[in-house]
Amino acid sequence: MIEFKLPDIGEGTAEGEIVKWLVSAGDAVKEHQAIVEVMTDKATVEVPAPADGTITELLVGEGDTVPVGDVIFRLDNGGGAPAQAASPEPAAAPSAPTAPSAPSAPSAPSAPTAVAAQPAPNGGKVLAVPSARRVARELSVDLSTVAGSGRNGVIRRADVEAAATGGAVAQSSHPVVAPTTAQAQRIPFRGVRRKIAEAMVRSSQTAVHFTIVEEVDVTDLVRVRQKAKAIGAEQGIKVTFMPFIMKAVANGLMKFPMLNGHLDEQAEEIVLPGTVNLGIATDTPNGLIVPVISQVESKGLLQLAAELGDLSERTRAGRVRPEELRGSTFSITNAGNIGGTIATPIINFPDIAILGVHRIVKRPGVVDTPEGEVIEVRQYMNFSCSVDHRLADGADAARFVAYLRQILEEPALLSL
Amino acid sequence: MTGLQQILNKEGVLVGEAPDLSDEQFVELLRNMIMIRSLDGRMLKLQRAGRVGFVGTATGLEASLVGAAAPLLPKDWMWSGLREGGAAITRGLPLFEYVAQMYCNSNDSAKGRQMCNHFQHKGSNYPSWSSVIGTQITHGVGAAYASARRGEDVVHSIHFGDGATSSNGFHSGLNLAGVWKAPCVFVCIDNGWAISVSSAQQTAAESYADKAEAYGMPGVTVDGNDVLAVYAEMQTAVERARAGGGPSLVVLKTYRMLGHSSSDDPSKYRDDAEVQSWAERDPLKRYEAFLIERGLIDSSECAAQEKAIVAEIDEVIHEQEAAPPFPLRSLVEDVYSEVPRHLRVQFNQFLEVAERRGDATRGDGAFPL
Description:
heterodimer, A: alpha+beta, four-stranded antiparallel beta sheet, 7 helices, B: alpha/beta, 43% helix, globular
């Protein structure tokens, strides 16, 4: 059994935040397999398994900050000896390891003992890790009033957060009349949420966004999709409207390639890759994640439907691979099917453009028939397309969405 | 000034004259590059699991390391910047010593007195690294000068990064090497970033190779991801030094794909797009394509080699991980020819504490006073 202690992953880091567990208790793991994503003051890294074995227990929750040296998971490696990696040629094994004690097994009782909470020593310089200082600034906590639980009384981030909460609780117990209904919440701004924030700020401050909205009569598409759904069901594939939209977008981007790609600022070149890799904005319990389906222009509708189903499911379950989150050339967001009639989507930087897809609504529409114009119940869907005006112009975007409308209003044109 | 020297373009197509190497030598260059990449991958995993303390990878620099080391003879010397451990393996540093040094265990030839990931190997004339930027330049020049004075037919290859061109050692070393016509080659591995300082912030010169002119020596800029171009230009420089023609400056333009070290997060100072553009110039893929085209390997060779090498590395890791640390006594040894009384007294007191804590290891024991 190995008790895995959070290592000092960056020369003098004092603590790390558990961003995400990549395995669950009971999982069999291989030596070097990524087990947990940990964020320190310096970087966010994947911490791998020290040996082959079975994870018996995850001891720390996601979002928790733990000091270096704390046991964060237990791994049953079938004994105390260092695990042997599966070697393809066991005959060539040289001198086998002799020492029976695994180096990564606990050796000394060095678990950090929380130094008794006491004010900053000798009233001089306050000792705190950088993240604690940052959080203290953000939460307006005076560090000199915080007791440090780290080595030698160093203030850790958790100490600051505890002090901030403690302060709030103390306030509410004051005789001053305080509303007893909703308690104000303070949610740590980190992990995926902060990553999303950074990406959004970067996009919004760099790309010059403009948005064009188009209304599409999808009455025929609804019929076609109904049939496709039945065919897909026979093969166990769930066919939504998304594969049709993806296909239309891919066709449109092959025709109007200036919306498909990204800006290489270093080289001062607009990169137009000639293939369509669609980022699909996905709402997950952890926040917005954008996995990528590649070479959409060369794939059929059912294949797209199958890939999309698989990818969304794995993304929501947190099992998407890092390489599946890179390389988009254009993105689609369909949060609009929850509500709203138009949107101004933020571009998935450094893409050139993004398409927001809205829900289908029934409305009266004017239809040309041999007997003249009649009013019918039609189904409409809105598209909101945001484009980086540095890289493409309004006319480009207008031609692109007009083309989308043309082929989605007459789905047979998808095979063009 | 010449432009960027290249023999294989980024697709691996021959655009210059390939050096005169045997089929085995061509394939050996690939194997060595795979070794470096595999070793880096494994060491980083060990570091992330807390099994070794510190790692600085050479991922992306494989062609620069392997190509620059290959033209050197066993009797030549290599002076390291901060990433040539893999190149040292190609010159004779045993893999187990490399791994032992990462663990600073009792097989570490530096006896645990170096930071981990700082190698040395006496057998292949490879002095221990210094993390202090540029100091090895003056050391190497002095050693080259000494070699010449002694009439030894030895060339010193002195490696450093782009950041070291701003160090005092760079000026002192290149200046005197030029004056003395010291038998050495200055190898500047320009990987674009000195930790977080870009080459654009480092110098206004178009290439670091321009600096050679001021020291009266030839300077050349080479595509550092093209192992054949690196080999060819290094061979020219080594031959020139060996023939008494004096030093040269060879600048290898390449890119560090990962962080400066395991403590660094490069995404904080550089763009993904820049990293991506270098991923497309990968030195291994390019050279693999060339070897396949030349009929020296088939397309499955790389994966097969990597698998075998990783298995070999893993075996060595498990062996070295189980090796004991250095005896505590080594703390006070090797400074005086015999450990003096005041250190023996201190050590004996220290040993009592270590024994109480259960940290005393085999080979220890109190000194007779």
